[in-house]
Records
---
Amino acid sequence: MSTVTLHGIKIPLSPDEVSPVIWQAIVSGRYEAKEAKWVFKAVKSGDRVLELGSGIGVITSLMATVVDVQIWAFEANPSTADLARRVIDLNTTGNVSLSQGILTAGAPADHRFYVRKDLWMSSMDKDQGPYEREISLASANIDDFIAEHKINVLVMDIEGAERDLLQKADLNGVERIFLELHDHLYGLAGIRDMTQALAAKGYAYDPRGSYGPCVLFSKDEAIREYEDDDAETAIA
């Protein structure tokens, strides 16, 4: 097993535990590079963060470095959750709770989840592409979880499922939502649906914490600085 350092996070991982595409993205530093930079615009000291779609736990571990942050992370793919647990255990100090499962809007139900070779393509969308196997996952209600744990920040990368979730969930108590958009799955119509739904809940697109498909929606009126031009150029 190798230990690769990515965005300052140690990843104990063998090349045969992920697809060649994922491994190359990790060793080249491209894996979740934009998310790794911009998530710090969303997460602040003292936040209580719910993360949906932790992947292998890199962004989870980065968020956990913020002072006095508590994180509850969910990953649907069982094998990916095992990798994430390994990464989180190595890099964090007890402020992360990781669960293998899903949260959805509405009553708990059983859902089909499609596991694909490239872990970032695994999703609840059967038509997203060829899959290796199909599993059943029992969901829990996201609004109940938010209320129980007093969540104020939502971070998500859930391969298209954000469209349904952001339209149907109440999200009471959540001040900031940081997510990766997947417009290749739902087009501009899907982005419009989510933007309108979030606006109706009191959120605005926040350019101070957004870059390309990594976007921040916020109710937070506190003054925060924009990135300077040099920083923008460096990550373009």
---
Amino acid sequence: MRLLALLDGTLADPDAPLVRVDDLGLLRGDGIFETILAVDGKPRELGPHLDRLARSAAMLDMPEPDRAAFERAVRVVLDNWTGGAEVALKAVLTRGIEGGDGTPTGFVMGMEISAKALAQRAEGLAAVTLERGIEPGLAERAPWLLLGAKSLSYAVNMAALREAERRGAAEVVFTTSSGSVLEGPTSTLIAARGRTLTTPPSTLGILPGTTQAALFQAAERAGWTVEVEPIAVDDLYTADGVFLASSVRKITRVHTLDGKSLPDSTALHTTLTTLYESHY
């Protein structure tokens, strides 16, 4: 099932033409988006997602997104959803048509959670490390690279996932050339040691994770220690658990990295998933 809502609060046919062929989001990936999980009609972390959408817009020198319009479009999709209990909401805003008056194109699409994502949630996945060409301080030195913005320009991320598949894995952990961990193409990395959870800092030019933040809040309330600190790639192999956090896949464990089996984190994954769900 799919539902499409426009920012004026009306539903549109998701199979009918909507985006013009000269829209800059299509021609150049010049736009931004967020993917939001809704469960039983309730969107998770909608506020933080829309905050991040606004930050991405500012980084791309786009007009500030109409927050009320996106909230309305999300509600329209959820009020008309007749599919499963979970729905992935994709909020999209492009710069509009090339040579136009600057009016952006915006919409919210509701989609079923894929069987692949559900399987990875339950079973975990294998990942490979790939260099991203980012070093500490680059985001500040070169803001035009849009590091940390959630833009529609995902060609590099998708190429990395195809490379992972060629290597027999399902996911990627991006790294710096000096061996520090960054993030996944569509996820935030979390390493666990004892009752301490660590994720890399956004100052490295990575996207702050909404799901990771929700887990950390729940874990901290339960007495865990949470850290935002650099992580060396070598430390992943000896961690009690390595996890990728994202809106749709929630908390997904990495059981194999670069062809090496990681310590069994099945029980830890259950604990962290329970903590994450307790946030709601």
---
Amino acid sequence: MHYVVRNAWYVLAWSKEIGDTPFSRRVLDEPIVAYRKRNGELAALLDRCAHKLVPLSLGQVVDDTLQCGYHGLQFDGSGACVHVPGQDRIPPAARVRSFPVAERYGAAWIWMGDPERADPGLIHVIERYDTPGWAVLWGERQHHLTHYLNIVENLQDPAHTTYTHRSTIGNPASSEVAPVTEEADDHIVTYRWTLDAEPPPIDRASGAFEGLTDRCQYYRFFPPCVSRVDVVTMDAGQEHTEANMDRGRRAYSYKFLTPETDTSTHFFWMHVRNFGVGDADFEARLACEFSRTFQEDNVVTSAMQREQNVTGLRQTAWLNIDAGPARARRMIEKMAAAEAAEAAGAASPADAVSRRTVAAS
């Protein structure tokens, strides 16, 4: 795959998706199968039997192992074959790759790179999760038919919301407000405040505001795969302090991007908010609204991908609003290039030995 970082935690699934039957999903263009052991722990393996490459997800879970549905070989959570029907000897090559997995924030995270680097402490911290007065909404996974970097750029682009999301989060008053982009060591942020304006449809429908509002959108991207949008709508005329923003309608809108292939992405979203807490009907409506909003993005970025495939181009003109998206893309491209260079350097001595061995033979 192009421009992917393997040494990172990606969301494989929401925890509720994985049970005691094989669960399959493609991640970074590799087939993954996951399952739960009897103690509830997760295991994740390459979804190819070491014998004939039949997907293990076509088999079943037996005594904390995955049993191949073709010849019955059983693999434990480490990927080792522990049973071959009809013979005592287990071939040394009867092993499949296993992947580090961890559960946090209602999600199953997978590490696709060097397992020695898989520190669960590197999983992104979710703001206000499990904080009194704040509610968490887990959205259904969406399948976006585009390279994940197109989604990264979309998530760093406040300017598109006015036009792509006219009936949900779009606000015409924001269209002439230029976004500001800033870059830190570990993330990039693009933001803007829209002052003394009518609230957007999603806030106006709630009836929470009688007059004009100030509204901010802070689009933070933590490479390679986490977007956090801090959205605040508050009565106009207040100082923009953290305390005042918390007294308004505030939400942290998370998107977790898991590349599937060069032209498809698993799109997970989570919404952490300080309004409508405990209101099941409101939460159901909110889930529908956000699902519709992100599908609107899917329509646009998928169409973009189709034209990129046809033309071989990414874009032909550049605007001021591209500053944030371009920086986010460059951060990931640099990370991927550094990782590839490191992997090539580590492989060089072994490759050289291999070449000498072949020549000698």
